[in-house]
Amino acid sequence: MTWKNYIFTGLLNRFYPDYVMVDRKRIIQINTVIGNFQFSDPMKQYFDMFNQIDEYRVDDITADDVILDIGACLGGFTIKMSPLVRHIIAVEPVFIEELRANLTLNNCKNVTSLPYALGGENEDEELGSISFCGRSSLVRYKSMKSILKACPVPPTVLKIDCEGGEWSISPEDFRFFRVIEAEIHNYNGKNPMDFIVMLEKEGFKVLCEKTPEGQLMLHARKLQGGSM
């Protein structure tokens, strides 16, 4: 075994203590506490890619809720929450095929996957390029209004991590949700505190904290005469 293989195996053992080979072409299936995942390119670059999932607060999400997961990536959050809620709409523009494969691998039958990127103010679809985790793709951008129209079930919970696309959401689009869990990015000079002010004006109680990467993790709950 080469030194590179030793490092590779050590990283796997650290972040995914139990993993198995699934065929002779060395396609690796990773078994985690969240679920089973194909060992695709993003996981090869970011061994700790699922660590952030624990930063989302989900204690008050119920079996009646419908989650809109924007920026689903490989499906870590979606697969974790699938057994706990009524339905999930997972939106992912770049790794949609990997996402769908992982949903099948985990028998997630209550998930709808949509191959879109959040962005733009128009409801019409727009094409653009995204580069993420070493892959560049021509993707379809849709506004939040358009994504909501594509949801087969009205969502009540919004989870979002889409590398700045959250800034395209209009304040009135938040009225559909009672729970918002989001990573807010400071791209293009945007101030994440402005996002908090926007949600507070829409009747949300907001708590926040910084991620290890320096972004803002936001936890918002719709006020109904009480406190968070």
Short recap of the structure:
The protein has 228 residues and is of the alpha/beta class.
Structure description:
- By secondary structure, this protein is α/β, with parallel strands linked by helices.
- The protein contains 6 helices and 13 strands.
- The protein has helices at about 5-15, 40-45, 75-80, 95-105, 145-150, 190-200; strands at about 20, 30, 35-40, 65-70, 85-90, 110-115, 115-120, 125-130, 135-140, 155-160, 180-185, 205-210, 215-220.
- The strands form 3 sheets. The chain has a 7-stranded mixed sheet, sandwiched between helices. Strands 1-2-3 form a 3-stranded antiparallel sheet.
- A hairpin with a 6-residue loop joins strand 1 and strand 2.
- The longest helix is centred in the first third of the chain and has 13 residues, at about 5-15.
Short key terms for the protein model shown above:
228 residues; alpha/beta; three-stranded antiparallel β-sheet; 13 strands
